């Protein structure tokens, strides 16, 4: 029995969802069809006990934000849920907590429930070995100090407890700064390392931290500073702060074209070849009380093209034994319902839908379908004439036609000879801060070109492409119709999920629609369900929005760097971005030299972000996507890196804000009040400018790397060593006396976040090697494809075992 009754006839302005029975608690839901009810939808906290549970949650097709953090009893993620979805999830035993924001974006901070899930394993007896991955302090807003530590134990079971103790400055007692228990971080069922749930607020700057394990392991390491590198202040004539409100895609695009006209010597517009589907919908109306007696109609043409002018009426004849009939006058459709011998209506939803579809004049105007594939055996009721509507709320100044996406190209010499950088924003429609971030960057570059020497160098030496809105249709819908819209507006669902009440459930997640590590390749973090907010699309690159990105990188092969700006949570990430949940099978990690380049660049870029108002992106939210967030199958950064060797990053603007009164970090959401959104746009525009600085340094780099062999351990019968390098670079080496080439073994990372690997030989060996940096400069000018012998070499001695 369905619980929610619908009015006999209604238009799209107030369509509730027909409730479906909740599955029993024990039922496994592999690919959940979320409710598309609009009223009461909120951004909620959801806590799962571990990464396996998060992957299961992700596979249900829920609308998860790009946000994840460890909490005392598991992993906290945020999801956009209707009341019905929240109820159904709780029935399945999933811990759904209070709201971060609702549809009015007012803070709703509901009281959180906590549940403790204990997982016991037999304690291991041996003393564990502790490897400190990172130990750093940093400052954030209002010069608050924080401590971040990551430590890996050789004892990987859940019973291992690590405790950190630190001093309060040089010469102070080792435990004078404080002590805290660390949390165990797991991903896809695998132990990664221990860390703090959030960076710890501290009063004094520590010099050393000691980590002890309940298994007996202990280690003491120095604490280094994270971020805050000294940055040259902008010139006295430098200007910034060009945005004062959130902008829809029409306004953003006009702003870009206006800039190109104003600065024709250093800017132009690139029209991308694939137009979007457009901010448009078929006009619809729905009739019925419960699913079995409900049907809906959809116009053959879009609402603005005449679909909104169609009406449908259901009329009960005044005579018994009347036949079902359809008549059409202009765009007014009248269904005369059949009656039985007593004069009662006898037409079912299926019969009415079939009659409309069979009538030549009616079917030229509309199509009819029963509710979500229901057999439609229930009787319908008479209803007055109801006008179809596309229910779109944007003003008429927002075009309903397919949207022409435009990129702004900035550079003094735009002939492909300069290193290209691709900055793109708003792949996800509801992330309102991101397009104004791209707009701010464009304004800074062009309006400071004649005023500021540093800006002039960037524009003269680079070829910069700025695409401020990747998802214009969805962004229009988010701003005017449904603010939590994530995807584009293209309906791939067909009759079973294309009823009017499902209008917020259509579209493709653009950042899951690319061709590398995709859902269709078996990777996790996307869905095949057309109503899922991580819907990967009917095929890879099915959407014009994603094809436009790929086209741009192919059309301009000089593009070597990219930045995808998202919201929210305060992350700085890079490829690989996806794994297969079974065994946590990652896309190939970048090589050691490139990984080091990502880390080194992050210091420069994130220091620029911090320079605006002091916001620090946490060390624990910096790194490859799966290491700090979750698997994102078919994302654009992987597309550009693996297919085009484009060094790309992902920003998640909107870092958590620390509240000194509560001593808690508080999330900001997708659409914070513009006062906060403005600050996010300003600081991450500074980060985008810093990416351009990194790219310019790359373009000008002709310095050869220098490396050394460093012995790290000696024992009878073996010696271990590694290589040190003065800049991010790859080392190619041989141990058999042969000449090293680019086909020789390459130095790798020891493990995730652990630095260079250690090599071990069991006999005295001459090691031969050379280093190559990211720009292609080779140590000593050595030519690995030639015959010279000016590679590096050193003899590694091994003492004989007794």
From TrEMBL:
**Record keywords:** Carboxypeptidase, Hydrolase, Metal-binding, Metalloprotease, Protease, Signal, Zinc
Q: Where is this region: Disordered?
A: 781-802
User: What cofactor(s) does the depicted protein rely on?
Assistant: Zn(2+)
Q: Which reaction does it catalyse?
A: Releases a C-terminal residue, which may be hydrophobic or positively charged
Instruction: Give start and end of each Peptidase M14 domain.
Output: 364-695
Where does the signal peptide begin and end? 1-19
Q: In terms of domain of life, where is this protein from?
A: Bacteria
**Gene3D superfamilies, A to Z:** Zn peptidases
This enzyme's EC code(s): 3.4.17.18
Task: Determine if Ribosomal protein is one of this entry's keywords.
Answer: no
Which GO CC annotations does the UniProt entry carry?
extracellular space
Q: Name one GO biological process term.
A: proteolysis
What top-level class of enzyme does the UniProt entry assign? Answer: hydrolase
List GO molecular-function terms, semicolon-separated. Answer: metallocarboxypeptidase activity; zinc ion binding
Q: Which family does it belong to?
A: Belongs to the peptidase M14 family.
Instruction: Summarize the protein's role.
Output: Carboxypeptidase that possesses the specificities of both mammalian Cpase A and B. Thus shows broad substrate specificity, being able to cleave Cbz-Gly-Leu, Cbz-Gly-Val, Cbz-Gly-Phe, Cbz-Gly-Lys and Bz-Gly-Arg in vitro.
Protein name listed in UniProt: Zinc carboxypeptidase
| Taxonomic source organism | Sphaerisporangium album
Taxonomic lineage: Bacteria, Bacillati, Actinomycetota, Actinomycetes, Streptosporangiales
